Amino acid sequence: xxxxxxxxxxxxxxxxxxxxxxxxxxxxxxxxxxxxxxxxxxxxxxxxxxxxxxxxxxxxxxxxxxxxxxxxxxxxxxxxxxxxxxxxxxxxxxxxxxxxxxxxxxxxxxxxxxxxxxxxxxxxxxxxxxxxxxxxxxxxxxxxxxxxxxxxxxxxxxxxxxxxxxxxxxxxxxxxxxxxxxxxxxxxxxxxxxxxxxxxxxxxxxxxxxxxxxxxxxxxxxxxxxxxxxxxxxxxxxxxxxxxxxxxxxxxxxxxxxxxxxxxxxxxxxxxxxxxxxxxxxxxxxxxxxxxxxxxxxxxxxxxxxxxxxxxxxxxxxxxxxxxxxxxxxxxxxxxxxxxxxxxxxxxxxxxxxxxxxxxxxxxxxxxxxxxxxxxxxxxxxxxxxxxxxxxxxxxxxxxxxxxxxxxxxxxxxxxxxxxxxxxxxxxxxxxxxxxxxxxxxxxxxxxxxxxxxxxxxxxxxxxxxxxxxxxxxxxxxxxxxxxxxxxxxxxxxxxxxxxxxxxxxxxxxxxxxxxxxxxxxxxxxxxxxxxxxxxxxxxxxxxxxxxxxxxxxxxxxxxxxxxxxxxxxxxxxxxxxxxxxxxxxxxxxxxxxxxxxxxxxxxxxxxxxxxxxxxxxxxxxxxxxxxxx
Length: 630
What we know:
- This protein folds into three domains: 29-163, Jelly Rolls (Sandwich), CATH 2.60.120; 175-391, Rhopdopsin 7-helix transmembrane proteins, CATH 1.20.1070; 491-630, Histidine kinase-like ATPase, C-terminal domain (Heat Shock Protein 90, 2-Layer Sandwich).
- It has helices at residues 2-22, 42-46, 170-205, 209-228, 232-236, 242-267, 274-290, 295-326, 332-354, 360-436, 444-476, 478-493, 505-514, 520-540, 564-571, 578-589; strands at residues 32-36, 55-57, 67-68, 71-72, 77-86, 93-98, 104-109, 112-117, 134-139, 144-153, 166-169, 497-501, 545-552, 555-562, 593-599, 602-610.
- The chain is of the alpha+beta class.
- Strand 7 (104-109) and strand 8 form a beta hairpin.
- The two termini are 63 Å apart.
- The protein has 16 helices and 16 strands.
- It is rod-shaped and about 155 Å long.
- The strands form four sheets. Strands 2-1-5-10-7-8 form a six-stranded antiparallel beta sheet, with no helix packed on it.
């Protein structure tokens, strides 16, 4: 399957990512000396009786891993790391790179201070913690290099040096540093572009809620890369205090597990139980509450949060997307590959963090790849939805053609069959009246009643046939059809009517119709509502009727000027009249409103109908019945 191929490719990337950097590993393991609660200088070690180390270690590691008198060193304190290496490089321009220590440090080479991060101190009051990788360049011709690193920590629950220290020619160290920075900056650019694109898509279309949720999730990914990456945060906020840095980073981390499940629920609502979201949201809230305590307290337990919430949410997400992929839901396979790759990167990053190594590059790469996979999954899903919508639109178009053909056949049958029979009946009655009016005068009144009823039926049938023709026109062009219906109704009643159309309304409605934003059911409801309002207006209006059609902000507006008698019948008599009550029901079904507007002594009835997209679900069942609003 495709997602297995994707996962295999990126698992290979994880396995070889460290080799990308280890090729330039320039400082081989050696003997490191550690001196607890002392800041020794090169002069101290030049004395005839130099200080004795409190611990010896093969690599420079955090002092919590070392022991003195059988007990590990405490988290808070200060000390000196020292080692001596031979200068075997063919150039005097050298460089050194020390991963960000816990929590402040000064670096000395052959007795000269070349760089520092934060301000070291012998107490919490005198120390200024920082999180900055030590990257320095210097020149020397010495045969041996004595490296002294003073470190103090009164902030984190771990203290000392971590990761692998690299030293070599200035050019090699510079290239090494640029690789880490390139990973961070590329990840930030990728995630920012993905976040901006999906937010813009949602903002412009106001559809596909998963785009908006994914943009929020991408924003959290952006924060993860920014605050957990190697050094990118220093380019934007060089003076950001370490406590603020740590709290913001952990706050972002707390929101990611529940947001991933919220995103999945927006894609596969029937598969993601709301209980999962509540559980991980509750876990995140508990972790967020711990941020109010001192840094060394909650940073001590963040590993367990990674295991419980991070691993748990990732496992749930993998199972859910696996089920979705098994059902062949578009985009699920790509999303599954993304979760598997994120799981691989996260597991390896957690391992590095647990073993006191720098994991920022893997965090950056993992979340940027995951964002790419999620974006690909959304694109695949939307492509599948567009394909389905296109197929549905074609089917709707075919059904519309079939219904139109069937309506024409019914109209033809009514005209040819029923109309012909009624005409024959009328002619037969006329013949009977002429033949037997003198012979059976007592039957003439009854026959004349039947004759008048037959003529009324024929006229009613013709009116309905004309209405069907007008309805067919309205299905093609709503405004033209409504205008034709109103003109015919007022002409048959012998009354005057004035119809005012807003500029461009026909073109706007035609564009919406071609985009399937106006369906046939909405058109029929609008036509029947206008029919009933027209009937009501014809009953009571004695002067010229004024109709206005307009469209503003996606809302179709109809208004008709009416006198007080007509107004009372439309509003106060609505409950008593079945026709008017039916109008209010139809208005409610299309989420419309009917309002009374008084302007300069004139009264208007205004109908407002929002044009609801096929892609949006109209809440037509939960709406209360429409009521006239004054």
